[in-house]
Amino acid sequence: MNSTPTPTPTPRFDLIGIVTSDLAASLAFYRRLGLEFPPGAEDQPHVEAALPGGLRLAFDTEATVSSFMADWTPPAGAGRIGLAFHCDTAAGVDAVHTALVDAGHKSELAPWDAPWGQRYAVVLDPDGNGVDLFAPLAPGTPAPGTPAE
Description:
Elements: E1 15-20, H1 23-32, E2 46-50, E3 56-61, H2 62-68, E4 82-86, H3 90-102, E5 107-114, E6 118-124, E7 130-136
Parallel strand pairs: 1-3, 4-7
Antiparallel strand pairs: 2-3, 5-6, 6-7
């Protein structure tokens, strides 16, 4: 019997998932960074936001994850995921950092001029995940990984 094997499909990176202790607080934090979530999302067990380039950022409550992984427990300590938001200008990094800290979020790294040519800062989201804020120091300099126009 001669059978042709079924080709294995190539996976496509599509979604970044975060498990959150307080969905409403997480959505409020990420809305301040420009992400859009549907009205009433705070009351859902799973919420997604569309990202540029077709990726999605999803949030699941701890109860949602526990519902299909009975032995799951929330990790202790800082998160193991890092997200970064381009703030257009060095002044934009400072302004976004100040707005988030003024809203009660913890600064992990105050804005500074990094030797790689960016204004850089880190704020912790409600679950302790580091969220980087950055912009090129020289106007018109593309962010790393951004094609020059």
